[in-house]
Design brief:
The two termini are about 25 Å apart. The protein has 16 helices and 18 strands. About 35% of the residues lie in helices and about 15% in strands. The protein has about 450 residues and is an alpha/beta fold. Strand 5 and strand 6 form a beta hairpin.
């Protein structure tokens, strides 16, 4: 099982995503007519690149324009930037004739896109030099012996907190347990409510995104699989989430959570945090870049390790990353699409990506020469002995409500959380059994699996 780790080589430099993973309101930006490339016929091969990331949209737009202006193959790329509806929009595009040529893929989407047949292998385009430059990561950018993406950068996860509000509330240290998280949120709200500040928030407009930034890492550090999968038994078991979801519900019931989180997206959350209206939230190592480039912070802030259920670390904070661009299986211009991908994976582009604060590279040849960005707040996201990588879990599509939606519904309406978890276990394991039987999904128990052994491999 352990050979199916997200990383296959300790030589890879620990990556810190300094810029956010996507989101905000929907938007589309084109870079058409940026240049005239080609050999003189005037006709162009037009391709599209779809991404759900907004943090690096200006940077990518510049690079797309540069490619359009400089390539000599008559290729013109249109950049389309989506928000939290990226996955839904992509699904719809493959049901019609509007699928993109190049797709932004992530560690929590590439398996799904692969299984849905959205991606084409890129092996035919890879030279021995490229294969050596971008080490393969089974079950993350390589499936069934074929590669579908190459890495760029990765991320860690932390508790982000407003130091000014902490000082005002007389709180000296960030919380280390769930109970402390609840108590701290209440104290911060009492200190800041008169000025419109609340103790805690998450971007619950998208429960999957919100819990993926928060409950997931609390569970992982506490020794539970962040997606509800138990690697020891090879079964889904969401019982480890019970105290986490109850703590979040308590924060909301206490009135310590920012009002309107039901419709709060990640960028509006960041904007309010930058203004001092939020005491704490959990997110990726994206945030330093955000508060430098996107929402300049008007407060003193920092990042701290994520609290665990009881203050004891029994697992590892999941290290994320390993892919960036994927080739669409529906592209009618795969060679042109690959030429654009190849351009985006050039050393200079990847080096610029790091040095401008969008992320520290996972590519050894790039990280060896690229400078670490001088970005305020990054020190809290540096790798520590509790950062590590988890095995790849078998993603399934259960009938009915997904776990994140079910948990958020309970947070809002109450009910019997044990019954909710029992129902999730039943439906997810039924979907897992079906996937094993019908789709060739593999799920083998590993009685020796120890989540506490995962951490520290990338700390310096």
């Amino acid at each position: 099982m352990m050979k199916r780790m997200l990383m296959t080589s300790l030589s890879l430099v620990m990556a810190l995503g300094l810029a956010a993973c996507g989101n905000g309101n929907n938007a589309a930006e084109g870079t058409g007519d940026a240049g005239t490339g080609g050999s003189g016929s005037g006709e162009k091969t037009k391709i599209s690149y779809w991404t759900g990331d907004r943090h690096d949209a200006d940077f990518v737009k510049e690079k797309v324009a540069e490619f359009n202006e400089t390539n000599t193959d008559g290729i013109e790329v249109e950049l389309v930037v989506k928000g939290d509806d990226f996955d839904t929009a992509l699904d719809l595009s493959f049901q019609t004739s509007d699928a993109p040529d190049v797709i932004r893929v992530k560690e929590n989407t590439i398996q799904t896109f692969y299984k849905k047949g959205f991606l084409a292998p890129i092996d035919e385009f890879l030279t021995d030099e490229l294969k050596a430059k971008f080490p393969a990561m089974p079950d993350l950018n390589e499936f069934d012996g074929k590669r579908y993406s190459l890495p760029n950068y990765g991320t860690t996860m932390r508790l982000v907190y407003n130091k000014d509000l902490f000082a005002k509330a007389g709180i000296e240290h960030p919380p280390t347990t769930l109970q402390e998280l609840v108590d701290t949120a209440k104290k911060l709200t009492e200190a800041g409510k008169a000025d419109g500040a609340y103790g805690f928030a998450q971007n619950f407009k998208s429960p999957g995104s919100a819990f993926g930034r928060s409950a997931r890492v609390i569970a992982e550090l506490s020794g539970f699989g962040g997606f509800g999968y138990d690697f020891k038994t090879a079964r889904y078991d969401f019982s480890g989430f019970e105290p986490i979801i109850n703590a979040f519900k308590q924060i909301k019931d206490d009135g310590s959570m920012l009002p309107g989180v039901e419709s709060l997206d990640i960028d509006p959350l960041r904007a309010q945090f930058a203004e001092g209206k939020i005491g704490m939230y959990l997110s990726f190592s994206s945030e330093p870049g955000v508060y430098k480039n996107q929402f300049p912070a008007k407060i003193d802030w920092a990042a701290a390790p994520v609290p665990t259920i009881d203050g004891n670390v029994k697992g590892a904070s999941g290290f994320l990353g390993g892919q960036w661009l994927g080739l669409s299986s529906k592209s009618e211009n795969k060679e042109a699409a690959w030429k654009f991908m190849q351009f985006m994976y050039e050393d200079q582009v990847l080096t610029d990506y790091q040095e401008k604060g969008f992320g520290i590279s996972m590519v050894p040849s790039v990280s060896a020469v690229a400078k670490t960005p001088d970005v305020s707040g990054i020190e809290g996201f540096l790798p520590n002995k509790f950062d590590g990588v988890w095995p790849v879990y078998p993603a399934v599509a259960p009938e009915g409500m997904k776990s994140d939606d079910a948990f958020f519904k309970y947070m809002l309406n109450g009910g019997d959380l044990k019954a909710v978890i029992a129902d999730l276990n039943k439906r997810y394991n039924a979907a897992l059994d079906s996937a094993i039987k019908n789709d060739g999904v593999k799920a083998e128990p590993d009685a020796s699996f120890d989540p506490a052994s995962l951490g520290g491999k990338f700390a310096k």
